[in-house]
Amino acid sequence: MRDLLKFRYKYFIFISLFGLAIHLIYLMVPIYMMVICDRVLYSFSGATLVTLSLLTLFCLTVMGVLEYMRSKMAMRVGFAMEQRVLPHVLATIHNNAAAADNNGYDRGVIDLACVREAVVHGVFSKGLDLPWIVLYLVILYVMNPLLGGVATIGLGMTFMFQQLLGQLNTKRYIASHGADIEAARLLSATTRHADLIAGMGMLEAVQGKYHEVAQSSRINRYQAANNRCATAAVRMILQGLSIAAIFGSGTYLFFSQQISIGIVFAGVIIMARLFYPLDVGFESLKSVAEAFAAYERLLHFVETRERQSTLTLPRPKGALNVESVTMVVKGKTLLKNISFHMEPGETLGLLGPSGAGKTVLLRLILGVWNPAAGKIRLDGGDLSQWKREDLGIHVGYLPQETELFAGSIAENISRLKIVDSEKVIQAARKAHCHEMILSLTKGYDFMVDNTGKNLSIGQRRRIALARALYDDPQVVVLDDPHAGLDESGFKALMATLQLLKKEKKSVVLVAERPNMVAMTNKLLMLREGQVAMFGPTKEVLSKLSASRQQTSQQNRQQLKAVPSTGQNRLN
Predict the structure, then answer these.
(1) Is the pTM of this model over 0.90?
(2) What CATH number corresponds to the domain at position 172?
(3) Which stretches does UniProt call biased (Low complexity) (predicted)?
(4) 295 plus 361 within the same structural domain
């Protein structure tokens, strides 16, 4: 990924060569001034003046064309870089969002756009003009060492002043950009829960929180803008003094007959040109600071999260082995030493209280999270050996929280891929929601909005189940599949489970209802992140029944002992 983020340096070499040509051609302007002042004004030659003027016009036109080509090349480099890197950034963003140790960084695309804009608008390429300052200084020294010395002093003072305030402004721009990111995240989160905020009268509190986060950005940007105004004023003074000093020094040298009047005017033009790279750099300071900060964040983020996909494995049969799996997130152990085995075509039900680790285990089985220790194997192969896209084809997933994407129902069922009508309808029939979809306006072309709230929870749940069954996956993972379903929806779910069992699909589900437990071959009970019971369904149910009877007996004995103990005390 680092190689992809490294800009195409060969293009920047060409951009630098264009810059060299542009600055060399620009020297035609002071040369024109020298010849006019030293030759044409004394010879009164109109032909020489016209010829020289046309030559200068031609050179400046060529310079303009080269500048256009340089800008066009920078633009192409920027967009080409974005096109190459964007798929990796998108994949990494989604891997990060799904990871157990999600660091909350979700602005990879925005940071990439920030870097692209800096390249496209020539911020970096114009920074390559800075070395040509040396060329102009050398020319001034060749004209006369005094002119070179005056230019060096003026340039040095301006550069040091800009560098001092530039560093302060860079820190403020980076700090304000970070605060802007936090404010945008807060605004996005509060917008998603707008109904909750309005219903519970939290708007003022949310506004106060947003103001608190955004205030830091405003303060830093205000201070940076204030420094920028002061710097611009002082820079203007220093540049004016430097140009005046060159003109005064040149006039003195002219009086002492060390240089011609043409060299005086040429020196003034070159001195004015000397400040151009500094001015561009100063004006681009904010963009450069934000672009480099975005580049560093992006590089660190992608290198940290990038997942290397290696093998294309054959379609699995559905044998699942979980071997001594432990899961730790931010120092907290969520699962400890989990082991079990599933044969192809079996249905495993997960039992346990809330927070026991059922959802965590499902995410590990999906390969979304990586265990801290142990292995999860599908048909004998470690899940880490699978390409993410390949594994997603063979594993269907119904998450605990149902989210549909903006688009048609057909697009949602087809997992946002090119819609294959036959596969979409097949998945809907398996999920027993085909008739329900047809009853909607436009049927499979019904458009789900950004929030998905133009469908009921039960409808969204059933469509999400069809999405999980799209393309006939061999392994199906269902997290609380009954949540949000009415009676007809639950009957459809039970029919789907019966069909999956008949088709010999491997199913792992959170089974909290007796009807769902009856559909399983094996049960795994979790308690505090550890296996409490595992085995065939009948065997686990017998153990649970015996355990409950024993607990009930103990409770009755304790209740009987309470009054007798009290009576003994009274006696």
Answers:
(1) no
(2) 1.20.1560.10
(3) 547-558
(4) no
